[in-house]
Write a structure and sequence with these properties.
Order of helices and strands: EEEEEEEEEHEEEEHE
Strand content: 25-35%
Oligomer: single chain
Radius of gyration: 15 Å
Number of helices: 2
Shape: globular
Distance between the termini: 14 Å
Structural class: mainly beta
């Protein structure tokens, strides 16, 4: 994983070098915002976020048997990763700067897209992940949720990232599996 966040003291804006734009459409029907309570077995502590890339689902473990499940967009082929990390930052309406890899693929992108802009790929909120350029974030392209669409970030519907954002804190463990 790679991580870079630039904090500008004057504007107190956070610019993420993370994620992909709304490029690529979902491979399934568009997801709708509605986290579901589901049964989930596993060796995860309550409060852990588990992303199952192959399922394109994110689980917030509630106890030893239950989790909240959300649809997500995940890394496209060649951009997926797996591992364990922690949330190291939480931001509402973050500004976004495309990382070099994204800028190379999409050279016409501006250097920074303001937070709150309908063109900002971070949506209404983002939670950065320690040790990489990745984040769990919202999107202004809801049709991309449910697909293999990003440069490695975990993309959620804005209503779902808002819900998850309120349920977790900095330091929350995140486990990404393939």
């Amino acid at each position: 994983m790679r991580f870079a966040a630039i904090r500008t003291a004057t504007a107190k804006a956070v610019v993420f070098a993370a994620a992909a734009l709304g490029a690529g459409l979902a491979t399934t029907a568009p997801a709708s915002a509605r986290p579901e309570m589901v049964d989930m077995a596993g060796d995860f502590s309550p409060g852990t976020i588990v992303v199952k890339t192959g399922e394109r689902k994110l689980y917030l473990v509630l106890d030893g048997r239950h989790a909240m499940r959300y649809p997500v967009g995940v890394g496209k082929a060649g951009r997926q990763w797996a591992g364990t990390t922690k949330i190291d930052g939480k931001y509402k309406y973050p500004a976004w700067a495309p990382p070099a890899e994204v800028k190379r693929d999409k050279p016409n992108l501006p250097d920074v897209i303001a937070g709150g802009s309908p063109h900002n790929p971070m949506g209404v909120a983002a939670m950065t992940l320690a040790g990489g350029d990745y984040a769990i974030h919202g999107t202004n392209v809801p049709g991309s949720v449910g697909g293999f669409v990003s440069y490695g970030c975990i993309r959620m519907l804005n209503a779902d990232i808002t819900d998850l954002y309120e349920r977790v804190s900095i330091g929350t463990t995140v486990v990404v599996t393939r």
